Amino acid sequence: MKRFFVYMLATRKEGPLYVGVTSDLPKRAFEHRTHAVPGFTARYNVDRLVWFEAHENAESAIAREKRIKRWRRAWKIALIEESNPAWRDLFDEIAG
Fold first, then answer.
1. Is the pLDDT of residue 16 over 90?
2. Quick check: 37 pLDDT over 90?
3. What is the CA angle 16-22-25, rounded to 5?
4. Are 11 and 45 in contact (CB under 8 A)?
């Protein structure tokens, strides 16, 4: 069964945040890390995976992504720090 992921990238706690959705988190995170796709994350060097959650279907993942994008920055930071208080880059955990 295919899973879908909502994720957040950051440069650091005080830096820009990016919220996205994908069906292949390791591949998408790698694309952000290598700046393979032009856009916001490449322009601002937003390449550290700091938070993600899995969803059973695309509809729920997209709805969650849209909801989080409307949140205040402080709420996004609180969500990240709930599971990743040190703002570690989680890429190695999902890539292997």
1. yes
2. no
3. 80
4. yes
10 touches 18 (CB < 8 A): yes
Query: Which residue matches tokens 């550290």?
Result: 48
The pTM (predicted TM-score) of the whole model is 0.95
Distance between CA atoms of 8 and 89, rounded to whole angstroms?
11
What's the pLDDT score for residue 96?
Answer: 72
> Side chain identity at 68, as an amino acid letter?
I
69-81 confidence digits (pLDDT tens): 999 999 999 999 9
Question: Euclidean distance between the first and final Cα of the chain, in Å?
Answer: 20
Domains of the chain: 4-95 (3.40.1440.10)
